[in-house]
Amino acid sequence: MGELTHIDEKGEVRMVDVSAKPDTERVAVAEGFIGMHRETLDLIVEGKAAKGDVLACARVAGVMAAKKTSELIPMCHPLNITKAKVECEPVFEGEREDGRVGIRVTTTCGVTGKTGIEMEALTAASVACLTVYDMCKAVDRGMEIMDVRLLKKDGGKTGLWLRQ
């Protein structure tokens, strides 16, 4: 375990000074899952949700969220994102250990810069799941957003990290 970088010697929060760091290619992959009733999943897959194409909207919302991460997370640096990809995949019975059905969101974000892009990938996954919830809440208020987590990060001083 390393030390907290967003806390100064007085215990105050701060934005980390990355000005002396070299620019490197960085990538992060994150995921999230929104569980729902099977009937809700069927509406989404069949394109019959009242608000329109749920998965297309969630993909666009995730990309937009990645680009706005520094406006949402106080100590994040604004980044010149070079890649933001959001994939939404229906998950049916038997495909998860817990048996839940829903939508798995996987996001990939990239940048050439001085600091990592994990927060952008995580924000994209979170907002894509929130968008699915928003578009389907009229029929299923019991949906649950879960398992938002980093799967991979690469680049920078620490190099490659993969979730086991």
TrEMBL record:
<dbReference type="Pfam" id="PF01967">
    <property type="entry name" value="MoaC"/>
</dbReference>
<protein>
    <recommendedName>
        <fullName>Cyclic pyranopterin monophosphate synthase</fullName>
        <ecNumber>4.6.1.17</ecNumber>
    </recommendedName>
</protein>
<comment type="subunit">
    <text>Homohexamer; trimer of dimers.</text>
</comment>
<dbReference type="GO" id="GO:0006777">
    <property type="term" value="P:Mo-molybdopterin cofactor biosynthetic process"/>
</dbReference>
<keyword id="KW-0456">Lyase</keyword>
<dbReference type="InterPro" id="IPR036522">
    <property type="entry name" value="MoaC_sf"/>
</dbReference>
<comment type="function">
    <text>Catalyzes the conversion of (8S)-3',8-cyclo-7,8-dihydroguanosine 5'-triphosphate to cyclic pyranopterin monophosphate (cPMP).</text>
</comment>
<feature type="binding site">
    <location>
        <begin position="119"/>
        <end position="120"/>
    </location>
    <ligand>
        <name>substrate</name>
    </ligand>
</feature>
<comment type="similarity">
    <text>Belongs to the MoaC family.</text>
</comment>
<comment type="pathway">
    <text>Cofactor biosynthesis; molybdopterin biosynthesis.</text>
</comment>
<keyword id="KW-0501">Molybdenum cofactor biosynthesis</keyword>
<dbReference type="InterPro" id="IPR050105">
    <property type="entry name" value="MoCo_biosynth_MoaA/MoaC"/>
</dbReference>
<dbReference type="GO" id="GO:0061799">
    <property type="term" value="F:cyclic pyranopterin monophosphate synthase activity"/>
</dbReference>
<feature type="domain" description="Molybdopterin cofactor biosynthesis C (MoaC)">
    <location>
        <begin position="15"/>
        <end position="156"/>
    </location>
</feature>
<dbReference type="InterPro" id="IPR002820">
    <property type="entry name" value="Mopterin_CF_biosynth-C_dom"/>
</dbReference>
<dbReference type="InterPro" id="IPR047594">
    <property type="entry name" value="MoaC_bact/euk"/>
</dbReference>
<feature type="binding site">
    <location>
        <begin position="75"/>
        <end position="77"/>
    </location>
    <ligand>
        <name>substrate</name>
    </ligand>
</feature>
<dbReference type="InterPro" id="IPR023045">
    <property type="entry name" value="MoaC"/>
</dbReference>
<feature type="active site">
    <location>
        <position position="134"/>
    </location>
</feature>
